Amino acid sequence: MTEAQPVAKGRRGRYSSPQDWSRLKQEIKDAANSMGIDDIGFASADPFLSLKNVLLDRRAKGYESGFEEPDIDKRVYPELSLERPASLISIAVAYPSKLKDPPKSEPGKRRGILARSAWGQDYHTVLREAMARLEEFILQRVEGARIESMVDTGALVDRAVAERAGIGFKAKNCMVISPKWGSWIYLGELITNIPFEPDTPVTEDCGECTKCIDSCPTGALVGPGELNAQRCISFLTQTKGFLEDEFMRKIGNRLYGCDTCQMVCPKNKGKSWSHRPELQPDPETVKPLLLPILELSNREFKERFGASAAAWRGKKPIQRNAVIALGNFKDKASLPKLIDIMRNDPRPVLRGTAAWSLSRIGGETALQAVNQAIAAEKDEEVLARLYRAKEALEGDEARSEEVMR
Q: pTM score, two decimals?
């Protein structure tokens, strides 16, 4: 036997026939739920050749987010992650989509929202623990088994593996939709040298429905199954730099991620999953008050959000998004804090974003503060944004005077 030909350890000794691998596959499926896995599928480890052209086209159009594995070949060829692979195993874990007794957002106490994928424990941890249990299950039964597991930080495209393995179908919003679980699922995969029989892909599809495309706030869904990540709010909320006016208005009160294309999907109607305690959300964490977020130190941020997937980029993007949300609420109660950030925050992105939010709220107090900030500001990008805020505020003031006349 070579390293590429594992053997299962059974009561009657070694065996490696297709029937034996079929029996092991069924044992894995039967035990999956006890390992924290809601759905599991098996697929060939053949290259994703049709995907390669899609990925190259996305790169040529500038649609990538920059968070992907940069080497496209590694995303297409499983053998670049595990020598001589025979199978892929895709796993899915379902998460909740509804918040029980959500706290209200009120004047003076405005709240932001985290995307559902960031509710509960960080899904990277949840999936890795589940896959570790699955690996152990297999290694206890198979000599010479080689396994490489990965979540969305790995090389392979999770959704492509899940689609091939029969977890669900690729929807027009680029999500994988399971006939049972909807698209509210976390995905992970394992590459192995065990020759499992592939499962049958799901034949269901979106039909004529285009609700996700029609509802995308920024038009990031440029066509069925085609996403321009550079316009996607989910991506934009995770960036660390300045955002343009168009995107800040569309972000609304989102602090991390965006669920619009999933919320409008008919395939998700009535689907919310509460059977995994570790994934259930704390309402005050996933729909937090905005002003207190702006006061958090790094340590306090980790204590508050560190267990969530939303924490991976640190506090700066979430604090910037909180500033944006306050501007979109146009709540005058937030003026003192926004003015303080614009004047004193050491981070240019926060200062410039606060100026934009003040221009959204409007009024003489905001205009005076912006003028004072212009006199003291040294950063060129922040200055440019201060002048744009000044222009917007003066325009509001002029329109107000016209109404009074």
A: 0.92
